[in-house]
UniProtKB/TrEMBL annotation:
Every DUF2179 domain range: 234-288
Keyword check for Nucleus: no
Key words, A-Z: Cell membrane, Membrane, Transmembrane, Transmembrane helix
Keyword field contains Transmembrane: yes
Matches recorded under InterPro entries: DUF2179, N-reg_PII/ATP_PRibTrfase_C, UPF0750_membrane, YitT
Listed transmembrane segments: 29-50, 70-89, 96-115, 121-139, 160-182
Annotated membrane topology: Multi-pass membrane protein
Pfam families documented for this protein: DUF2179, YitT_membrane
Localization per Swiss-Prot or TrEMBL: Cell membrane
Protein name (Swiss-Prot/TrEMBL): YitT family protein
Length: 297
């Protein structure tokens, strides 16, 4: 098989569509909702930490009126679900409906589980991790758990802000309310959980396995290009640039590689031109044909 044909086949990928994509999304929404409910009942509720959103409001309602959190969540989710239906579309509403129903259901089912810690700091840390992990999985499944996360996704759609920023905005309002109703100390613990939740959501949405982008400034650009194409079996892009000091025109090579290929790339460049200038940065996600690989048949 010719090298170019082999490289093209290696770089082909098959997108998930239709029933398979729907089944994966549904599973992710259910699993993410369960993880969120477990974190809520194991860490946040018993320590009276209002983590934000409708869940945080349900903690406040329980503290003030003794109302079961699951009931408060169901009640508040209804008007927000209607808003999501009109502003985010029918398909989104269907996926949101699943999360809106199953999250309070899981909260209700797991409400009697034994509490692993009564330390509010540990509760805010692990509660934030659990909620962020659960919500991140739900969002990766193109769904929502309803409540203020629906409002956050509406704001994201029309403002261009990242989803984590929108979630933090909604949750921050609830935490401020909790500071008045519960105690300032509980609100401070909730802020810790909120910060961790935002970071975990970003990590889940963007991926933990960072891809690397390398920018190579060298004299032997043709030799390095051939080595990357034939030895590393990666594509590259040649960028036109001009030296800031000399004003000379030059070519910058941009190469996207997996994390396991970084050492090979650096060794390859250093072997061909030890004085080459190489910049390597993280890329959370790479989209488009030509990067993800599948095995040959």
């Amino acid at each position: 098989m010719p090298p170019k044909t082999r490289r093209r086949r290696l770089n082909e990928y098959i997108p998930l569509t239709g029933p398979v994509r729907h089944a994966i999304d549904t599973t992710m929404i259910i699993v993410g909702s369960l993880i969120t409910a477990l974190a809520f009942n194991l860490f946040l509720v018993p320590n009276h930490i209002a983590s934000g959103g409708v869940s945080g409001l349900s903690v406040i309602a329980q503290s003030l009126f003794g109302i079961e959190p699951a009931y408060t969540q169901w009640a508040l989710n209804i008007p927000l679900f209607v808003a999501g239906f009109w502003m985010l579309g029918r398909d989104y509403a269907i996926r949101s409906l699943l999360g809106t129903v199953v999250l309070p259901l899981f909260v209700f089912i797991t409400r009697t589980l034994p509490v692993p810690t009564t330390d509010p700091l540990l509760a805010s840390l692990y509660g934030g991790i659990g909620v962020g992990l659960g919500l991140g999985i739900v969002f990766r499944g193109r769904g929502s758990t309803g409540g203020l996360s629906t409002l956050a996704q509406i704001i994201q759609k029309y403002s261009g802000l990242s989803l984590s920023v929108c979630v933090v905005m909604m949750d921050g309002t609830v935490i401020a309310l909790a500071g008045f109703v519960l105690s300032p100390e509980k609100a401070l613990y909730a802020l810790i959980g909120l910060y961790i939740t935002g970071k975990i959501i970003d990590s889940i949405e963007l991926g933990f396995n960072y891809t690397k982008v390398a920018y190579i400034i060298a004299e032997q650009t043709e030799a390095i290009s051939e080595a990357v194409l034939n030895q590393l079996d990666r594509g590259l892009t040649k960028l036109s640039a001009r030296g800031g000091y000399t004003g000379d025109d030059r070519t910058v090579l941009m190469v996207v590689v997996g994390q396991s290929e970084v050492t090979r790339l650096k060794t390859l460049v250093q072997t061909l031109e030890p004085s080459a200038f190489v910049i390597i940065t993280n890329a959370h996600e790479v989209l488009g044909e030509g990067f993800k690989r599948v095995q040959e048949e």
